[in-house]
Amino acid sequence: MGYIGVIKYKTVSERFPGKHTRIFANNKNLVEIKIDQLLSSGVEHIFISTDDENVHNTENVTYIKRDKKYCNNTTKLSIVLKEVYSSIPVSSNQDIIYTLSCCPLFSRYDEMYDEYLKSNTNQIAVHPSTHYYLDVNKRPINFNFGMWHSYSQGIDPIYMYPYAGTLCKMSDLIEVNYHIPTTFNYFSMNQFEAIDIDYEEEFKLAQELYK
Q1: Number of domains into which the chain is organized
Q2: pLDDT tens digits, 76-91
Q3: Which of 5, 77, 110, 200 pairs with 94 at a CA distance of 20 to 30 A?
Q4: Of all helices (H) and strands (E), which one includes residue 64?
């Protein structure tokens, strides 16, 4: 049956206006870069949920219009995702890679799919970080102060989930109306692949690394 790609993006971005449609590299924007990566990884088709009016379907890509009320930061995410998932015209048993366009340095979806098939377990792309972290109340998260302090080689990683990819069946996402299914394994990526573009500075950094 193979697997398909599902991308979600909206034209409005409060932190970095126009980030999805701004030219990123090779005269292509972030969405076009992600389309190329998914097709190169072997997906059979890509469905894109968006409110962008300046798009056109192709043989391999179908754009699905999403109402503006599902393209803001006020409608509850679960409601938005329910709308997105229900609009994708595929069987609930279809294997999908769900991703956003803001992680242009991650493209190993074929490896993710191989691991998914081999393990028979859903996959989410994460970056395991073994840096030292403190919470908002100045408490250590993955280490201890004082004589209990561990070297970084010995501390447990914290896993960053930058929306680079979730691989599962469509039914698994419909069940929870969320990005992450109820069961999954981690698919590790490095810190460069995990760059998630929210601000212009991250966009420029990702551009340099992409080169």
Answers
A1: 1
A2: 999 999 999 999 999 9
A3: 77
A4: strand 61-65
